[in-house]
Amino acid sequence: MSTTRRLPRTDEERTIAINKAKNELAIVLPAEITITPSTKVRLLSIFTDWKDANDDIQLSEAAKTNATILVETTRNNCSMFIRHFIMVFNFGVERGVYPAGDRNFYYLDAGSDALPALGTEEEIILWGNRIVDGDAARVTAGGAAMSNPTAAEVSTVLTAFTSANNDQNVKTAAWKADVLVRTNLRPEADKVILKVWDETETFYNELPAPTKRDKCRPWGVVYENSETITINLEIINNVTNAPIDEASTFFEEGNTTLLSNAAGVTQIKTSVADLATLKTSKTGYTDDTTVVTFVPGQIVYAVTIRMIPV
Taking CA 253 as the corner, what is the angle to CA 62 and CA 50, rounded to the nearest 5 degrees? Predict the structure, then answer.
């Protein structure tokens, strides 16, 4: 089994790497700073820029999500009013209240009571406007006014949908702009992360390999094995030996959280090297931190976490 260094592949992994390096820089003694002054300046700069970009994305994404929810609500409502208007008008044609030819005011086939397609935003806006404009023209031509719903009610829901749709487009554009800012920061982020990792590994290059990796990890350096390691995790009550379900275990090196099942069991598959730090919590129990140290050649581990009730 070989061990190699793996640079970040995603923006989340970049965030973790930058944050770890910055946090470690803030707590170590001056003599233990592994990076050069110029790299330190670049690290602090990209930390601020990257954090600001992430914060902006979080805010604009929340705004976009809320706008999307409103669009769906107003879209469904507008579509319903359009369908109901045409259906009720067709009922009136069937009863002889309106002549069949009046369907033409709405660009409908005079000889058919079929509903138009309303599957897209464009179709909803098209037919909503056709109803509003067509009904005004029909009444002006001497036709009896429509009700339940009226064209005015259709106009109200159409305006609400159009406004929400426009707002969503604005919010989406703002979110895309924020994402682009972070995208443009990636080259510098990757360069800084590489500098930090290279300089940190150089700082500890006289230590045995496992010790060097232990020293480098706090600076964000990630190592992985050539083989997948499996950790079969069992979480039980330390007093009763009963399994604990829905206990949350955060696998620090893998940046993942898992929940135990009804049997108190969960499984971790990972390629991280040397060790796995498992932080387990459950309401009514004392939090537990367990470190699994990997043995060369062993790829399956059975770990029991005994949680203490409080």
Answer: 40
